[in-house]
Design brief:
By secondary structure, the chain is of the alpha+beta class. The protein has three helices and four strands, in the order E-H-E-H-E-E-H. It has a four-stranded mixed sheet, covered by helices on one side. Helix 1 crosses helix 2. The protein is globular and about 40 Å long. Residues about 90-95 have low confidence and may be disordered.
């Protein structure tokens, strides 16, 4: 784990089955989108690759995800860039 990853929100999916991992990934991504976090980490491990494939498939269909890629330094982690909320559309409500 790199020093930078210590400061990013992360979820560890080790030992989970595909269905539960899919649910947790979607909840984790949505929560971090709402918290305005731009980058998050999903730790799925290497193993047989089942969790990695599940994570990537889940992220591909998640409306809050801008991009995702395997971490260059740790292939058991996926780095996710989230879309940013557009608060300009509701600024008139705050005035």
């Amino acid at each position: 784990m790199t020093i930078l990853s210590s400061y990013l929100p992360q979820i560890d999916l080790h030992g989970l089955d595909r269905d539960y991992a899919r649910i947790l990934v979607n909840e984790f991504v949505e929560d971090n989108y709402k918290l305005h976090n731009k980058t998050v980490l999903i730790i799925h491990g290497n193993g047989t690759g089942i969790l990695r494939k599940t994570v990537q498939e889940t992220l591909k269909h998640n409306k809050y995800v801008e991009t995702y890629k395997i971490d260059n330094f740790n292939t058991g982690t996926t780095v996710v860039e989230l879309k940013q909320k557009n608060w300009q559309n509701i600024s008139y409500m705050l005035e």
